[in-house]
């Protein structure tokens, strides 16, 4: 009987998953929505926050450097469309302690309401040949790029399911679709995000919560400039075969596709090189 019940439960979940794509999700309305952006003090994350703020959202910026957060807050506030909008800054390392991340998310929700969209943009890249990289580099990249996305997502997903509304965005990389020379540590950490996102989407889609994975190409950000300092020649030559995108362009595409729930792998494929 237990096996029969388990089989029925699995079949029911799979049926829900197969039927749910037939019901097109309504676009997420950003005016008045609460959007949390990790890694929001610079680069793509900051540009995503600006794009959402332009559309009337309330923003919680999460990053480690408090000075950069405050500077980003000033830049974002210039794009307000009404006097009710708020930009909240929280300084925390999203990759180190889940309880801390959970607490700051609770603080943000107490001030700005439940999270409608979470954008996991915190990340870092270090390039180098496999045998030249310290083992600690692999550990650090998995911690920042993977666990730094797991922890905030874990902190918001229960409330999203209860409310039956929400978007979770994971910012991966084109190196998260294809392993590249010099990126043994970075690519693997970004590949992990895809597995997490695909499995999570199966669990939350019946609750009207949708997961998006963005795979942006090389983008002109402080992180990209830092990455270039350690790139082997071979990696640099591969990178130079395409042009570098502007963060504003990438951010606009991510926001558009997240609120409309569109597959981003194709969109960033066409974006690359423009």
From TrEMBL:
Its domain of life? Eukaryota
Q: Which reaction does it catalyse?
A: sphinganine + NADP(+) = 3-oxosphinganine + NADPH + H(+)
- Which InterPro entries does the protein's record reference? KDSR-like, NAD(P)-bd_dom_sf, Sc_DH/Rdtase_CS, SDR_fam
Please tell me where this protein is predominantly located. endoplasmic reticulum
Keyword Lipid metabolism, does the record have it?
yes
Instruction: Write the record's keywords in alphabetical order, separated by commas.
Output: Endoplasmic reticulum, Lipid metabolism, NADP, Nucleotide-binding, Oxidoreductase, Signal, Sphingolipid metabolism
* Record GO terms (molecular function): 3-dehydrosphinganine reductase activity; nucleotide binding
Q: Where in the cell is it found?
A: Endoplasmic reticulum
Its GO CC terms are: endoplasmic reticulum membrane
CDD domains annotated for this entry? KDSR-like_SDR_c
Pathway assignment: Lipid metabolism; sphingolipid metabolism; Sphingolipid metabolism
Q: Which Pfam families did the record assign? A: adh_short (PF00106)
Biological process according to GO: 3-keto-sphinganine metabolic process; sphingolipid biosynthetic process
Q: Does the keyword Lipid metabolism apply?
A: yes
Residues of the signal peptide: 1-25
Family the UniProt entry places it in = Belongs to the short-chain dehydrogenases/reductases (SDR) family.
Name of the featured protein: 3-ketodihydrosphingosine reductase
**Native source organism of the sequence:** Balaenoptera musculus (Blue whale)
């Amino acid at each position: 009987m237990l096996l029969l019940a388990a089989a029925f439960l699995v079949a029911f979940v799979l049926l829900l998953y197969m039927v749910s794509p037939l019901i097109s999700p309504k676009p997420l309305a950003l005016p008045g929505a609460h959007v949390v952006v990790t890694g929001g003090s610079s680069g793509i994350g900051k540009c995503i926050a600006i794009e959402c703020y332009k559309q009337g959202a309330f923003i919680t910026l999460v990053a480690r450097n408090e000075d950069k957060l405050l500077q980003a807050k000033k830049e974002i506030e210039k794009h307000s469309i009404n006097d009710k909008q708020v930009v909240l800054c929280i300084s925390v390392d999203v990759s180190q302690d889940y309880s801390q991340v959970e607490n700051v998310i609770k603080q943000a929700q107490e001030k700005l309401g439940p999270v409608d969209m979470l954008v996991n943009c915190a990340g870092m890249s270090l390039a180098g040949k496999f045998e030249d990289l310290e083992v600690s580099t692999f550990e650090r990249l998995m911690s920042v790029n993977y666990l730094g996305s797991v922890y905030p997502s874990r902190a918001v997903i229960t409330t999203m399911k209860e409310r039956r509304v929400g978007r979770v965005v994971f910012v991966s990389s084109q190196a998260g679709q294809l392993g590249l020379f010099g990126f043994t540590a970075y690519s693997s950490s970004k590949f992990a995000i895809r597995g997490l996102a695909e499995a999570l989407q199966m669990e939350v889609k019946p609750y009207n919560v949708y997961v998006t994975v963005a795979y942006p190409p090389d983008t002109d950000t402080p992180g990209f400039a830092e990455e270039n300092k350690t790139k082997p020649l071979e990696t640099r030559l591969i990178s130079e075969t395409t042009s570098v995108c502007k963060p504003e362009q990438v951010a606009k595409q991510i926001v558009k596709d997240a609120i409309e729930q569109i597959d981003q792998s194709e969109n960033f494929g066409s974006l690359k090189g423009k």
